[in-house]
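User: For a benchmark we're assembling, each entry needs the component sequences followed by a predicted structure for the full assembly. Here are entry 17's components. Please fill in the structure.
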Amino acid sequence: MTQALDVRDVHASRGSQPVLRGVTIDVAPGEICALMGTSGAGKTTMLRAIAALGPFDSGSIVVDGFALAPGQVPPESRLRVLRRSVGMVFQSQSLFEHLTVMDNVTLALVHALGWTRERAESEAMALLTTLGVSHRAGAFPRQLSGGEAQRVAIARALAPDPTLLLLDEPTSALDPARRGSLGEVLRALAAEGHALLISTHDVDFAEAFADRVAVLAKGVVVEEGSPRDILSESTHADVRALLRSPSSEPAR
Amino acid sequence: MYLRLLAALVLVLASGSCARARTAHAPLRWGGDAEGGAPFVEADAADPSKVRGFDVEIASMIGQDLHRAPVFVQVAWASIEASVERGDFSIGMSGVEDRPELRERHAVSIPYFEFREVLAVRFADSARYRTLKDLSGKRVATLGGTGAYQMLLDLQPHDGPLPTSYDDDVHPYSDLVSGRVDAVLLDNIIAERSLRRSGGFYIQPAPVATGHYVAVLARADSALRDSVNEILRARMRDGSLEKSFRAWHVWDDGQAQYFARVLADSTRARTAGAAASVRTVRSYLPALLRAAGITLLLSCLAMLLAVAVGIAVAAGRVYGSPLVRAPLTLYVEVIRGTPVLLQLFVLYYGLSGFIRLPAFIAAVLGLGLNYAAYESEIYRAALQAIPRSQLEAGRTLGLSEAQILRLVRGPQALRLALAPMTNDFVALLKDSSLVSVITVVELTKQTAIYATNIGSWVVPGLLCSAIYLAMSLPLSRLARRLERRWSSI
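Assistant: Structure for entry 17:
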């Protein structure tokens, strides 16, 4: 089976400081992979490189058959194919504050894919209904609760139907009950065939909802496997450190 | 320095002891506008600290006969009456025209010179435009605040010409030659001087009207006025006024006949209508409201231009390559670093050799391009204030950079920029008064004309302020409301 995401031996640095030192990771369609690690382990840098928002120095990143080259991020005009394949949900959600929930979700459909407004709105309404926030379609982002904003951000990223969905610390602003319901939503997306790569340091969340866990420490994947194997039986010092940290830290 | 002071002191004491009558009196301070130039008052080319001209000579005759040393005080021509009433000097004399409002408000001497209002036209038009009647609907230039301007204003509702007022007496004639106006109505002295200086036009020999120059004194100073009248009559009689006028080439037969008339009828009584001020408010209010309309239209058009150019400049400076950014930065710095008054002059007069812009268009362009530099800085700051994550969210959705600017960054920046923009618009509304220097009569200029004509700033000033406030207060309120509504973003 072809991978939705194939990352091989990726190095990246911020200034002269190495952040990723040879990361290899893959995600198959229908699979949820949790990229775990303490703050500063390189999770966000990895996600930004995959979404072509940040550069990487060497190695290869292939998303749904599209290969990203190392070096500076290429201009948007050469990223059309990648943009269609990858959706991203930001830790801060980054909803467009001046647009309603409906307009946030339809923006890419109308302007990037050239759909008619009617078609885009019916698709968006279906997504918002699936995610349980259709009643907020006319609201502005600042009127939403943290959980609602999270779901709207997911709906916005899902609207162009990407193969791979990246989520950066999706549970950081949620209470435990909402974490559970977010997990259900993500499982349903995986069942539809989406590949999900979730950066998180929330051990309980990863254990409950991820198919596979990769633990990132000091820029390399130190352990990889099923959540049960890794999170309950690993003897690796970095994994134990992760387990000792509080399961949720305040949003950065 | 000390020695020279001492010498001066000794000289003053000495002259005091031998001619007590002369120093018993304070110096005679008289005011005029040396910018008006010869033959009235001009700076002496040999010694710019001194002035010369026939008004200067008349002042020295008056000083001589009063045994007081004349001291010249420079004052803007339009402010002579207000300054004499304030006591800045005792006598104002600089081609001051006699008119009923002047006599109503101040003590005024007998006229010492009779001039003719004459029409100057281009050679090609000399057969076509002989009188003001021939110029119906055409642009006729003159100096603001003069009898000629008042005459044009009075004629305008009756199919008369379109009055165009200037602040100086050089540009009416250069604009006549270049085709911006079709005729100039001013007194024959100024017309003939301009003809000698630059030429290129024709003065119709038949006068449109006659007028008189007078000396103006503070209302309470009627005793001094009476002495001045006696001196003027004596100097008409003994020929010294004629001699001075001849020296400045302004003497002719008409002047001789006028002097004879004055000396024959030395008690010219003039009465001014008591209801004149009510009449002037009524007659000027429509003109003020029309001028307010021009201020508003001018400000709106200039702001539209400023916003459009400002957005383009800001986008160029945020998104452009260094090659694009450099000239845009230069534009912003040059515009912000030089006075808008200078920019208006360059645009209207400086470029007139290459492109002859109509005054109103030049005003819109000048103000619009000036404000565009300030607007662009507001937009640039607003664009840069939008968080990077908003732009990245747009990118991951597959929007192009242009779409992100148009759909995400631009609209959000506009919300940040709206309050400062509204403040700028209120400022522009008031800065638009500067365009009177390029002959556009807007609210402030119209008020100044009104005030000069009735010789008081109280009523025109209050009316003008009320109109400006009526235009700017709603805008300030709008700015505050927008700021409140979008403060949560």
